[in-house]
Every structure is written in structure tokens, then in C-alpha cells.
Write a structure and sequence with these properties.
Strand content: 15-25%
Order of helices and strands: HEHEHHHEHEHEEEHEHHH
Radius of gyration: 22 Å
Structural class: alpha/beta
Strand order of the largest sheet: 3-8-5-6-7-4
Largest sheet: 6 strands, mixed
Oligomer: single chain
Shape: globular
Helix content: 40-55%
Number of strands: 8
Distance between the termini: 49 Å
């Protein structure tokens, strides 16, 4: 079962798992393997129909757009595809930050593509309306083409949520995190989840199948946290310090790497930000964005935050 912990699965190395690593969910391990892979073999492809296989390919592509996915049976695949020039390792050499940047870049490129397709369809419909008496039919046809050609085939799509102010932790827990569609949620208590389930309300988060990214919490000015949701498991974990809180002498010395880090900086925030990639089926993006916006600190709360951490800001300035 994908909800099993690795420690209970000797077939996945559970007997060798040490400490907390053995308590990770299998689904988290499987999704991470897909995200870190350059090549994904879709084995036993003969056991699904063509539509199911296309859906699986779409999901794998959404999770890792840089990977090459090959359907196969009994693990048989051309050696050249795996070990030849086309099988060169790129994704597998990236760290968490690198994977995140890749996912963000892909999601934003998909959003731009959708917007371009939408604009082209709207322009075509407007032209048709001006020259064709059947304007309603022309617009309906343009809309249908947009739905067919956009990246939302099978209902799978992704987007990036970003903001430059911290989340109010308690609002985030009650408004968003308690509603995550998972069986195991380490970010909230059982009572909070029970209260959400007992409510007559619902949440757009239930359409999300995978989400990940950096989050900025109002409880810390130094620590960056990583939001990770895969299958039935969700957590927000400590991912080290924001680069702004790291002395410049400890930054990478390669100019290109430093330039990438500095590209994430903005004003007094430094590289602190909300930057979460969402992948899901038929997601209500505006509703998800609105719900997350509700969790951001208000102007008054932001003033209090800066006053609370002004000593930390001063220390960071002295270090740099």
C-alpha cells in the first residue's frame, strides 16, 4: 500500500531504514523518485488501456516535465534509450532547490502557453463574430478548440502560487492545511483535521494531487520551510536558512550560481517568499489562490513581524 511507512516494507529497503527515514510514506518515496529521474519506465503498460496510459503519461509529465517516459512490459526497453546519448543524467544531479526551480519554470511556461492559446482563441472568435452571422457558434467552436489544445487534457494542469509576505501560521493551519486531501498530515493536529471534516464547508485543495515549494512563515525570519504534498502525505519541513540569512562569504563562489541566488531577491524580503507549485485535476486555481491569500499576514501584522525581527535583520546586515 502506498500509505505504508517504508520501515514496514522490507521490499523497499525498510529493514535498512534508519531513524526518521523509515517513517516516510511509500507514496512520498515514489513521487520523489519520479521527480528526481531522467528516465521513467512505465512498466506493465499492457495492463492498462490507451486512455489510462495517456493519463499516466500526463501525470508523470506534470510531476517531472524534464523526464523521458517510456511505456514497456517486463521492463524491456531499448538499451540505447537508457544508456545512450539520450539517457544523459540531468535531473538526477539537481538538489531540492534545483528541482524546485525546474518545476516553477515549467509551470510558468505552461501558464504562458495557456494564456497565449486563450488569447489566440479569443482573437479568432472575435474575427469570426465580425464576419460570420453565427457569432455564437464561432465563439463556442473557439472555446472548444482551446479546451482541446491547452495543457488541461485529462484535467491535469499546474500553476505557481507566489507572494512576498509571510503566512500567518494559525490561519494557514485552519484555512488551508487542515483541508489537505491526505491521510497523514504532520503540519496540523488530529483535532484540527476533525474540525475541518465536521464542517459543512469544502476546500478547493481537495483537487490537488501534488504540491511543493518554499514557504515563508511568520514564526521565523531566518528559516526557510518546504511544503511537500504527495498522495496521502503532507508535511512542512525545515529546509535550512534563506540565502539572505547566510553570510555572503558562505555563498557559492561560482558567479553564475550567485547570480541565480540573487535573482530571487526582492527588497527587504531578500529571497523570502511563498513559491508553491500545484499539480491537480480540474483545480479551481482562483479559489486556491484566494484561500492562500487569506493566510498572508495583513499590513498591520507585517509591521509587527518586522518590529519583532528587526534585531535579526540588523544581525544579517552586519554579517553581510
Amino acid at each position: 500500500e502506498s500509505r505504508d511507512v517504508i520501515a514496514n516494507r522490507p521490499d523497499l529497503g525498510g529493514n535498512e531504514a534508519q531513524g526518521g527515514s523509515g517513517q516516510r510514506r511509500v507514496v512520498d518515496l515514489l513521487v520523489e523518485q519520479v521527480e528526481c529521474a531522467d528516465i521513467v519506465l512505465l512498466n506493465k503498460s499492457d495492463m492498462v488501456n490507451e486512455t489510462e496510459l495517456k493519463h499516466l503519461e500526463q501525470v508523470v509529465g506534470a510531476i517531472n516535465p524534464l523526464a523521458s517516459a517510456y511505456p514497456c512490459t517486463y521492463g524491456k526497453v531499448e538499451t540505447e534509450l537508457v544508456f545512450g546519448a539520450s539517457g544523459q543524467a540531468i535531473v538526477s544531479k539537481l538538489n531540492t532547490e534545483g528541482h524546485h526551480r525546474g518545476a516553477v519554470a515549467f509551470a510558468r511556461s505552461q501558464q504562458r502557453k495557456e494564456q497565449a492559446e486563450g488569447g489566440a482563441s479569443a482573437a479568432a472568435a472575435a474575427t469570426a463574430e465580425a464576419t460570420n452571422p453565427s457569432a455564437a457558434a464561432a465563439r463556442a467552436a473557439a472555446t472548444q478548440r482551446q479546451e482541446t489544445t491547452a495543457t488541461i487534457r485529462f484535467g491535469i494542469r499546474n500553476f505557481v502560487y507566489s507572494a512576498r509576505r509571510p503566512f500567518h501560521v494559525q490561519r494557514l493551519r485552519s484555512v488551508v492545511l487542515a483541508w489537505m486531501p491526505v491521510k497523514k498530515n504532520t503540519a496540523v493536529s488530529h483535532a484540527e483535521v476533525a474540525a475541518a471534516n465536521a464542517s459543512a464547508s469544502t476546500s478547493p485543495m481537495k483537487a490537488v494531487i501534488r504540491s511543493k515549494g518554499f514557504v515563508w512563515l511568520s514564526t521565523s525570519h531566518v528559516t526557510a520551510h518546504y511544503w511537500s504534498h504527495a498522495g496521502n502525505f503532507f508535511e512542512i519541513r525545515d529546509e535550512g536558512d534563506w540565502w539572505d540569512a547566510v553570510p555572503r562569504d558562505d555563498w557559492p563562489q561560482v558567479a553564475a550560481q550567485r547570480a541565480v541566488i540573487e535573482s530571487e531577491f526582492e527588497g527587504w524580503c531578500g529571497d523570502r517568499r511563498q513559491e508553491i507549485v500545484f499539480i491537480g485535476a480540474s483545480m479551481d486555481e482562483p479559489a486556491i489562490r484566494a484561500q492562500l491569500d487569506e493566510c498572508l499576514v495583513t499590513d498591520d501584522e507585517l509591521t509587527e513581524y518586522r518590529q519583532k525581527y528587526q534585531c535579526a535583520e540588523k544581525k544579517i546586515e552586519e554579517l553581510n
